[in-house]
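Assemble and predict.
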Amino acid sequence: MPRIAYVNGRYLDHRHAAVHVEDRGYQFADGVYEVINLYRNRLIDEDAHLDRLDRSLRELQMDWPMSRQAMKVIMRELVRQNRYATGLVYIQVTRGVAPRDHKFPEDVRSALVMTVRPMLEFPAEMIEDGVKIIVIDDMRWKRPDIKAIALLPNVMGKQMAAEEGAFEAWMRDADGFITEGTSSNAWIVTAAGTLITHPEGQDILRGITRQEIIALADELGIPFEERKFTADEASAAREVFMSNSSHFVTPVTRIGDVTIANGKPGSLSLALHERYLQFMESEPFAVP
Ligand SMILES: Cc1ncc(COP(=O)(O)O)c(C=O)c1O
């Protein structure tokens, strides 16, 4: 069974799937994306992801390449053709193909690429041992709330993390506050047991998992506060974790050379992870 990608109206063998050299995503990073978790045949928080896609497109005055309903149909068809039960669906919309010129082209249709890749379910060691992160400067543009495909600072950050044997890099703004990870939102639990994450606004991506965790924490009766925190506060926190659609709630047990608490994932992080898995199981099947 070859892996299949969707490219502007066609289902193609993934090995040969390609866009035009003058796709504005390729030349200007003029596009937006979403990553949706496919978990045991469910598309987790699909509507919330499509709502965020809608917002990203509107912020950049870009059109939907097709109706939302049509996109849902294609997503399901792609999942069906690839036959993966668990993986990640990647959706990318760019402003389309046009002769290279910075300003928006006229009468050009936005372009759509969709892929699915298989993924193992959450690796046990990540939840048993937690992961290491490093802290770097946030060098991104001033609108990381838009899920744009321009990810060079994120790419550099993740590479720095990898070179230091870490799983993720958290970014620190000019005032010393942690904004988020290169592909995740950042969380701490204080000594008093309050869950903290950076307030939403223009300086972080409003993670879909982040929103779900806030709702689940409320359900579990965990006190929650949206406020900024520093790397020092995180290093001294009772618990630290990160969240995203690919890895849900991932405990962080080291920040650079500092071990968090007793070096084991904390109980609230584990409870949220467990509750999040239950939430995913409760989502409707996307493909039978
Ligand atoms: C910069 C950034 N922050 C946060 C997130 C988490 O968002 P979500 O929970 O919607 O996956 C991501 C996801 O890739 C991201 O790239």
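The radius of gyration is 19 Å.
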